[in-house]
Amino acid sequence: MDIYLIACLILFIAPISTIFHELGHIVGAKLVKAESVTLSIGTGNEVYNFNHKRIQIRLHALYFLGGVAYSERNIPYKSGEIIWITLCGPIFNGVVAILVSVLFDLTNGFSQLLVLFNSWLAIVNIIPFKIKEKQSDGYTIIQTISRNKLKNKQ
C-alpha cells in the first residue's frame, strides 16, 4: 500500500466511514422519536458547531479520530429501541460497503479501502468489547439484553 492510500485512509475514508456509522445511530434514534441528537466527529478542540432541527453537529480538530452520537428524549428508551439505535451504526456501514462494491470500480484503491474499512467497522462494532471507557455497539447490545433479563427476573 503506498503512502497516498494510507493518507487517504486516515484523512478521508476513516472520517467518512465514521460519519456514516454515527449517522446510522442518529437515523435509528430519530426513528424511535429522539427529541435531540448530537453528532460529534473527532477529538480535541472543537472547530465547528452547527445546530439544525434539534440535531447538533460538532467537528473537532482531530476529525479522523473517531466519533460519537448521542440522543435524548423525555420518555426513556425501551430496551428494543436502544438495541435498534445501536444496531443502526453497523448496519449503515454494511450498507455503504455493499453499495460501494456494487456501484463503483473496485480496482480503484479508494473504492477498495472504502469497502474494506466500512466492512471492518460493521463487523468489529458488533463484537462485544470494552476498553477503558469506550465500548463497542455489540457490548452495548449485550449490556442492554442483560439488564433487561435482570429487570424481568425481579
Give your account of this protein's structure.
The protein has 154 residues and is α+β, with helices and mostly antiparallel strands. It has helices spanning 3-31, 79-103, 109-126, 137-153, and strands spanning 36-52, 55-72, 130-131, 134-135. The protein is built from 4 helices and 4 strands. A two-stranded antiparallel ribbon has the order 1-2. The chain has a two-stranded antiparallel sheet with strand order 3-4. A hairpin with a 2-residue loop joins strand 3 and strand 4. Helix 1 (3-31) crosses helix 3. The longest helix has 29 residues, at 3-31. The radius of gyration is 17 Å and the shape is globular.
C-alpha Rg (nearest Å): 17 Å
Report the end-to-end length measured between terminal Cα atoms.
55 Å
How would you sum up the major sheet? 2 strands, antiparallel
Oligomer: single chain
Number of helices: 4
SS content category: alpha+beta
Principal-axes shape call:
globular
User: How many extended strands?
Assistant: 4
Taken in chain order, the helices and strands follow as HEEHHEEH
- Overall pLDDT metric: 93
Which spans of ≥5 residues are poorly predicted at pLDDT below 50? Answer: none
**Residue fraction in strands:** 25-35%
- Helicity level: 55-70%
* Order of neighbouring strands in the sheet with most strands: 1-2
Short description:
The chain is built from 4 helices and 4 strands, in the order H-E-E-H-H-E-E-H.
